[in-house]
Amino acid sequence: MGLLTHDEKQFFKDNGYLVKRDVLPQALLERAVDGLWHGVWADRSDPQTWVNAEPKKPESSDPTLHRSIVYDYGVFDMAEEMTGKGRLTEWAEPAPLFRYPTGTDKWSKPSGGHVDGYGQKDLTVAGFTIAATVYLCDIKPRSGGFCVWPGTHAKMADYFKSHSLLSVNRQFLDPDEPPNQIHMGTIIDLPDPMEITGPAGTVIFWHGLMVHSASKNCSRNIRMGLFTRFKWKNWNELQFETPDDMWEYWEGLNGG
Predict the structure, then answer these.
(1) Is residue 251 part of a domain?
(2) pTM here?
(3) Residue 123's pLDDT is what?
(4) Of 78, 135, 159, 182, which has fewest CB within 10 angstroms of its CB?
């Protein structure tokens, strides 16, 4: 029996993302958080020092835990169940990405998101197939949660059927967002973004063409996430393919 239901796979196809709960043991997540505090430039016992702290990608005292989270408890297996057995390889090592408190309670939805790997300074394309975001701690509303624009994976796939992959370039940078934030609303219609919340251990799978961002963190806690991206093993052959059926190569979603 598979790890994902038919309805969950269909939800991913329709919306471009899937949220799974209770995948990871709490003790493992707590160890990962302990290790990452090693690299945070703030006093763990003083939340006032967490406001606008650094770095966004802290080094861990035990980075081996990151791979265990992804590969030993079904996260990679679920991604592979959608794409097809033996089809994926890492795009990059599992890496933490933190969103620190802003010190303000004036929250607003992100005005625009981006698609990873497009609009790069060197004018190259560095996309991927599917990603997984793991919450290492509880994420409540308006706390810097991962945001998606549901259905934009399909809109971007349609866009690239008639536009070059290089057409998403620097001219689409959003002046109201941090550097490198592409405002996809200039090339496709965007629905309202959805901020995904959940307890520690929540796993969010999202398509490589999903428009996404992070919400403003108006809480008193740090948004601690672990991000992993995977690509087809034959990515060099497929990265410029724009098939009529965007799921042509996804064996796990096509009964394969």
Answers:
(1) no
(2) 0.93
(3) 67
(4) 159
Is residue 178 in a domain? yes
Q: Give the burial class of 134: count Cβ atoms within 10 A of its Cβ; 0-12 exposed, 13-18 middle, 19 or more buried.
A: buried
CA distance 74 to 158: 31
Secondary structure of the chain: what % helix, strand, coil (to 5)? 25, 20, 50
Q: Output the six-digit token pair for 182.
A: 């592409």
Assess whether the previous peptide bond of 94 is cis (omega < 30° from 0). Answer: no
Residue 183: what pLDDT?
A: 61
184 within a domain of the structure (yes/no)? yes
- Residue 217's closest CA among 144, 146, 145? 144
Query: In the chain, where does DSSP find H-type helix?
Result: 6-15, 26-37, 64-71, 75-83, 152-162, 235-238
Give the DSSP letter of residue 195.
E
- 3-class DSSP state for residue 154? helix
* CATH number for 53: 2.60.120.620
Q: Give the Å distances, CA to CA, from 150 to 42, 134, 207.
A: 35, 18, 10
- Residue 256 included in any domain: no
List the domain range (segments joined by +) for residue 199. 6-242
pLDDT, residue 37, reads: 97
